[in-house]
Amino acid sequence: MSELQRRRIEEHLFRCGYSRFMLQRMDLRRLTSCYNWEREKQRRKRYVASQQQAAKIRQEFTKNSKPKKLR
């Protein structure tokens, strides 16, 4: 892995809350592992948010499509 890629991964993990001190001392395997873990967390977070959005839309749709009672 090139120095540029390593720097990009370090920058990403720094934005996720890792300290620069810790990142500079990590070996490449651990750095990659942490990076993949953070990406997976973000992916899961986006997935849950989209599911909640879909549920909200579904709920709104079913609420509006119920037939009204005739008197």
The geometry reads as rod-shaped
The number of domains: 1
Give start-end ranges of low-pLDDT stretches: none
Write the H/E string, N to C: HHH
- The helix count comes to 3
Largest sheet: none
Question: How much is the radius of gyration in Å?
Answer: 22 Å
- Tell me the β content: under 5%
Number of distinct beta strands: 0
* Distance from first to last alpha carbon: 74 Å
Summarize it.
The chain is mainly alpha-helical and 71 residues long. It is built from 3 helices and no strands.
Secondary structure layout:
Elements (H helix, E strand, L loop, with lengths): L2 H13 L4 H6 L2 H37 L7
Helix pairs in contact: 1-3
Distinctive features:
mainly alpha
Could you characterize the architecture of this molecule?
- The chain is mostly helical.
- The protein has one domain (3-64).
- It is built from three helices and no strands.
- The longest helix is centred in the middle third of the chain and has 37 residues, at 28-64.
